[in-house]
Every structure is written in structure tokens, then in C-alpha cells.
Amino acid sequence: MPAALPPLPALRAFAAVAREGSFARAAATLNVSTSAVSHQIRTLEDQLGTPLLTRARNGAGHSRTGPTEAGAGLLAAVEEALARLADACDTVRDRAKRPRPLLIVCGNGSLASLWLAPRLAAFASLHPSVAWHMRAVEAEAPDLVAEGIDLAILRARPGAVLPPDRLLFEETVFPVCSPALVATGAEALLRLNLLEEESSSPEKAWRHWLALLGLPPARGRIVRFSGFNQAIGAAIAGAGVALGRSPMVDAELAAGRLVRLFAPIALPGSWVFTLRTRPGLARDPHVAQLRDFLLAAAADRKTLEAPPLLDIPAAGPRP
């Protein structure tokens, strides 16, 4: 093992004496006593086994304290090391004073609250040097440059994902409800509220699901909401049965706040979700890291998909 380095205060004292030519002036520079500087120099010389400084002798001999031949070689190395340490400390201070870069991520309201929010929070905890901000954006194709968005999760038709966009995940739709509300048999649906989000996608409409399950149309039982997360919130509260969308509801299923009904019956979603980054080079490498993190999170989820069980018409445009 290499020999232990001398204490940094002793090396600083040595450099100060060599620079000032006097123990007293070096002590004033370092804001310590002359005896403290003298003690540090003696300790350093004892540790290295050789004199490092000449001593001035009241007008006789040396008129100024300076480095010996051995001390001159050490002085050059010490001054270079102290200068590099000072530069490194200045760099750290400058970075600490700078505001953290703000990076913007967006998705539509349901995806942002049910899927993206917990994953963004988990990623942000690993990258505290960056400030993350999530927006709920409903536009089909927001202008990422004009709106200052670094990464967006967008909807697209299956098979219509074009580079450089990346497919994040496809959806699967099936009925869900609170565990406290589970009833046996499809006929039980006719006695419960059927919670439905406003959408033109047929797999999200209860009329298609009732036909699939061999039930007559429900009269007065369908309660509509403007958003998916509202319908799911009502289902978690035990207000009825909703049409869940995986992976949006995967966390609620895993936590036991929702249960899946009529498995393995499911329908594929009319939309897929894609990742798009701001055109050109990312402002921060964390954007690419977040993209890869979200892709890995989507790939690792346990799939609940089943083959299409009902031939339904293509969905219309997004409301």
C-alpha cells in the first residue's frame, strides 16, 4: 500500500511559508498562530524525513525562508494540487447555485394520473438534479417545441406508429369493480350501475359489453363520466362496475382496490400509446433516460390481454 499522505493543513502551511518567505507572514495568511505553522512544518518534515525549508537567521545566513531542493519539488506538486482542488470546489459551488433544469412531460389526463404519475415520481427520485413537471394535455398532436414539452405520451391508431415515435403499450378493456361489489353471474350487472367514460371507441361502451355477455340493453343503469379516471374513481368507491383499461388499472388490481370480472373476456383498445420526444437533440440526457425507463416499465408489466372476442366496428375520431 502507498504511504499515507501528509495532512492537508500541513501541506497548505508549507506552501504558504514558501510563498510568503516567512513563518509569521504565512501564519497571518492562514489566520493561525506562528507556532501552529512551525509545528505543522516540523511534523511534515519529520513525516517525509528531510528538511523542506531553509530558516532565516536574523540578518545572518539566509535572509528569507525558502524551500530546500527537496522542498522545491514538493512545492510544485502541492501548489498544482491545491489549485486543482480550488477549481473543483469552485465548479461544485457554481453548480449548486444554478437552478435545476426543468423538463416537461405530458400525457392525457387519464394516463397522466393513473399510469405516468407514479412512474415519473419513481424516476425523479433517482435523478434529483433535474426538476420534472408533468402536464395533462388532451391534444392529439401538441407542438412540443412551441409548448416547451420534452417528452409526450400520445395516442395513435394501432399500426400507425411512425418513427421516431416509439410504441409504449397497447390497451386491453374489461369490466372491473370494487371487491365489496362483486356479484356472481352476468345478470348481476343489470342490478348495478354501469360506469362509462364518454368515448366513441366501441370497446368502452356498455352496450357492446352487454351484447357480448348475452344480456339485454340496460335501462337507466349507465352512468357516464367525462373522463376515464372519474369512472374508475367511482368504481373504486363501490358505485358500480366500470370498463377498466389495462395497464391503466393494473396498479389498482394489484393493490386489491379493484377486481377484474368475467376473465378472460377482454377487448383490445382502439388506441395505442406512443412516446415522442422534442425534435432535435434532447436538452438533457435525462429525457432519453426517462424514455427508456418508461419503455422498460411498460414492457415489464404483466399482460392481461386476450384475443378479440367480438367483431366490433372501427372507432370514430377521439371526442
UniProtKB/TrEMBL annotation:
<protein>
    <submittedName>
        <fullName>LysR family transcriptional regulator</fullName>
    </submittedName>
</protein>
<dbReference type="InterPro" id="IPR005119">
    <property type="entry name" value="LysR_subst-bd"/>
</dbReference>
<dbReference type="Pfam" id="PF00126">
    <property type="entry name" value="HTH_1"/>
</dbReference>
<keyword id="KW-0805">Transcription regulation</keyword>
<dbReference type="InterPro" id="IPR036390">
    <property type="entry name" value="WH_DNA-bd_sf"/>
</dbReference>
<comment type="similarity">
    <text>Belongs to the LysR transcriptional regulatory family.</text>
</comment>
<dbReference type="InterPro" id="IPR058163">
    <property type="entry name" value="LysR-type_TF_proteobact-type"/>
</dbReference>
<keyword id="KW-0238">DNA-binding</keyword>
<feature type="domain" description="HTH lysR-type">
    <location>
        <begin position="6"/>
        <end position="63"/>
    </location>
</feature>
<dbReference type="InterPro" id="IPR000847">
    <property type="entry name" value="LysR_HTH_N"/>
</dbReference>
<dbReference type="InterPro" id="IPR036388">
    <property type="entry name" value="WH-like_DNA-bd_sf"/>
</dbReference>
<keyword id="KW-0804">Transcription</keyword>
<dbReference type="Pfam" id="PF03466">
    <property type="entry name" value="LysR_substrate"/>
</dbReference>
